[in-house]
Description:
By secondary structure, the protein is of the alpha+beta class. It has a six-stranded antiparallel beta sheet. The chain has a four-stranded antiparallel beta sheet with strand order 4-9-6-7, with no helix packed on it. The mean pLDDT is 88. It is built from four helices and ten strands. It has a single domain (4-199), classed as Jelly Rolls (Sandwich), CATH 2.60.120. The structure holds fe (ii) ion (FE2). Residues 106, 108, 162, 166 line the site of fe (ii) ion (FE2).
Amino acid sequence: MENYLTLTDIKYDQNALNDFWELIKPKVLESYNFQSDAIQNGIDKTEKWNGRRITNSELIDKYLGFGYNQCSEIKRLLGLFNKDFQLIIDDFCFVVYEPGFEFSPHIDEGRKVYVAFPVTPSDGGVPINFYEKIVHEDGGIQCGQLVETYNYSTIHPTLVDVTKFHGVKNDNNWRVYLQLDMGCDVENITFEDCKKRLKEDKFYYKGEIYEYT
Ligand SMILES: [Fe+2]
């Protein structure tokens, strides 16, 4: 079973994303209550270390007065994807893990597939781990054994199927990824659907420049 797909048709500029991260990092680290007991929803409340989603609206409204629109590389990346996805700049977010943070195996809520762009460390840091999904007769699901690890490309973005159990065990580096949620505004966008669109040449933008807002 395929858990991810490296999008070798396109490249991203890791240095440009890292420059933007360095720009917002002081405010983010000051504001996001890292190394505290108030941690991300769904994670064991006794867990000391944590990870954060840095949303566009929070950056604009609460912390910086500007958001991901200020990063020309993120705007360029947004324009690469087919307008049928109805993507907007808010579909991007940086996801920041503290040193030592372990995101235990889970299935995402609110999205089925996303695109990952590793920002720092420059080699992409620790891999993502995928686990067996055990489906019981009563429909209940359970996380099984580790089945695959993947070291992200730092040249090409990667499409990830987050309907599979996955988790990350961070090392002693800060780990920052840009994520693009596919299908937050269009229902039923799945990993398989994205693969189909890729095959049909309906995944990337073709033709005239589409003006995203
Ligand atoms: Fe996840």
